Amino acid sequence: MNKDSSMSKDTINNGSTSAKRPAVMEEPRFLKLLDRFAGMFERSGIDYTRLRLTLRIKLLMDARRIPTVFANSNKTNEKSNYFRLSLFIYTLMGLFAGLILLLPFPLFLKFNIATGLIIFFLMSTMISDFSSVLLDVREKSILLPRPVDHKTMNAAKIIHILYYIFCITAALAGPQLIIGTLKYGAIFPAVMIPELVLICFFVVFFTSVLYTFILVIFDGEKLKDIINYFQIVLSLAVLVFYQLIGRIFNISEFTITFSPKWWHYLLPTAWFAAPFSIFLEHDVSAYYLSLSAIALLAPVTSLVLYTRVVVPHFEKNLQKLNDNSVRRNRFSSFTGRLRGKLVSFLCRTDQERVFWQFTRHITANERKLKLGLYPSLAFSAVMPFIMMIGAFSVRSFEEAAWKISKGYYHFGLYITAVILGSAVLMLSRSENYKGAWIYKALPIETPVPIFRGAVKSFIARFIIPFFLFPAVIFVLIMGVKVIPDVVLIFFNMMILVLLVFRMSKKELPFSRSFQQTYDGKSTAVFLLFFLAAFLGGIHFALSLVPPFGVWANIAFSALLCMLLWRNCFRISWKDVDA
User: pTM score > 0.70 for this model?
Assistant: First the structure.
């Protein structure tokens, strides 16, 4: 007993059970703050020594875990505290929500948008990164066989969740809190800080209900997929909102009116925006009072439901995360047959078909690859429309629509072409790269079928769909007159894709780790921008020579594509970078 007390005292004062052991990480200030309440935990029947050690390990793992916002980073450093770095990125995301308050919009509308962004960022962050905290099914099997009781383990988990939520919420809402205080005075933080607590209650409840619903209806594999989708959405949001911050005031000249509607009562953003209208505009109408009452009652009710209803079912269904089975349905069988016919048409040999299917399987099932690839692909599809924001500097949507239809905004598809062209470099990356030895065991005389099948599959699965999405929208917005331009940009994009593949090192598909740097990537991307600008310049010049200038360019680019395709795959095993 004395030995345990001595160990407890040393642990609290020094942060470790052994003074001679070198510190693995800097002692978190949070633990030093928690030490002040050690007696309270002991009186509650919680072993504070083991509680503190468990929390210290959890915080260490948080620091080492690569957050979603750094998913596309090629270099990692074990000494870096990635959780702390991610908070800086979340602060920049929160800055965008804070800048909304400076727009000359009606106050209720501004706080609807700003609060909505905070809720969106917080929920996306929690689902993408917080899932590793909330959905940890290994904790019980690791800790319970040790001398750690249920009460101590649950206390550590709850404190860790509260710490995680507090840090992320402070980072996301901090800029808005500062900007709002400077603009509206001391009454603003007095309203916003309690609202942030209520928002956290609501988001935790909604997130847990979402997890529970998915686990009850579907299997663990489906939940992992949905978490991965949210990670992709969050990564895309970081890219998009980074671009929007500098353009936000281009839309400030619009005259926007607001009128209450019955369906506003269904919007959480309206609930949390209403108190600002009451305290900042002194509007105590029944509309804002009722919305404010919902803002108080809904989170409190959700917290009660979470503890009494959701948690028991949630914990019971967590074991489904160990289920890796995938259920197939009739629709997947139909699409599989359709895809098989497409593969037979595009691939001339059986070997090419095998590596087409192999590439499709890896890109469809490897979550880390999708997390690194999908955000840039989605960003390529939305970037041309971000560039169109300048058209909305006029005073009406009619003027903006006319300006877009008469302009050359569809040339923004060249940005799409550049991003998609550089995406082909991801074809060699995989978290299971150590399995690349299988290539050497295959009875294949030449690596051509490997590369040809993989590149064809990548183009068909990613390049073409992510180009067609913005292209079709531009045709719908600007009319059929831009179809020849879109066709020409497509062929020029294929030229860029093939040139990137031709100039890059010949690394076998999925044979390299994500941590390995892309040798020459910066040079390849620079050349892509230069070539895209060159091809776009020729395109623009020939578009001024109607009616056959663009069509002549299409014929030339199509011919160049065919020549490059034949030249790109003249590869022997000697050319492959092992």
Answer: no
